[in-house]
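2024-03-11 09:14:02 DEBUG pipeline.ingest accepted 1 chain
2024-03-11 09:14:02 DEBUG pipeline.ingest length=327
2024-03-11 09:14:03 DEBUG pipeline.predict start
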Amino acid sequence: MPVKVQEARATPVNDATEYVATVKSRDSAVMMPQVEGQVTKILVHSGESVRAGAALMEIDPLKQQATVKSQESSRAAQQANLNWTKQQYERAQGLYSAGVVSKQDLDQAKSALDAAQAQMESLDAQVSEQQVQLHYYKVVAPWGGIVGDIPVRVGDRVTSATQLTTVDKPGSLEVYVYVPIEHSAQLKMNLPVQVLDSDGNVLANSRIDFISPQVDNTTQTVLVKARIANSNDALRQSQFIRARVVWGTHDSPEVPMLAVSRLAGQYFAFVAEPQSSGSYIARQKALTIGQTVGNNYEVLAGIKPGDKVIVSGTQFLLDGAPVIPQS
């Protein structure tokens, strides 16, 4: 029987393991207020692009503005007092030089001036502090990016624990892969990592650039990270993906899937074996299958490189049947 054959060749095969991983952005900011109050203005919309420093929303600043104005008034009053004590000290210096007042009177004037100066510096610091606090009532973007969902509305009361929105800067992402502790000894920097889509196609290639020194006590896994580019926006922040960690490579023969049959859980393939007479017979081989590489199976045992694997008409063959190999 004429059959088509394909020579089994040793090809490099990756020793790899797939894991469910999480994509996280290196440039994603969760916006939370630094003060408490009522939202009075929302100046952006979800999905809008903003520049660095752009105002996103405003929290009612009236109470803080009143506090700042009160502090500034106190500072103005203290400034007038400081000017008066300075004049008193200058007058006391002139009188002391003329011998009209005693050294004690001069020292008292100097002490009053120093106290007024210290009080003035204290009020300056308080005014600056309150002005900085007033700045926090306007929430601004830390960098240019895209505004995420805005769960709050005008009129809502927020605290420092309330999430207002997010600002995501387009750019590189990080893949968080949680590797079981059993493989921790194999982990090393720069190991290849492949990000796969649902069909097993490679979306991005990267290498491990971080290995956690600690084991997660809950899951008994080790966190590793790999940075990937996201130029075509195929991935999203907090997305679950498949990540393949490549531990190394080895050479194994591969056979086409169409040449392999499965009976009672065991894989088989036919090989055209040469005879002393120069003819060939079909010999059925039990296989130990490894990974799937494209449209081929990796063979761990049963076929060696150089064997002529029969790839057509296998459903009509019997073990020992004479065949005529055709490439």
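2024-03-11 09:14:41 DEBUG pipeline.report The chain has a mean pLDDT of 87.
2024-03-11 09:14:41 DEBUG pipeline.predict end
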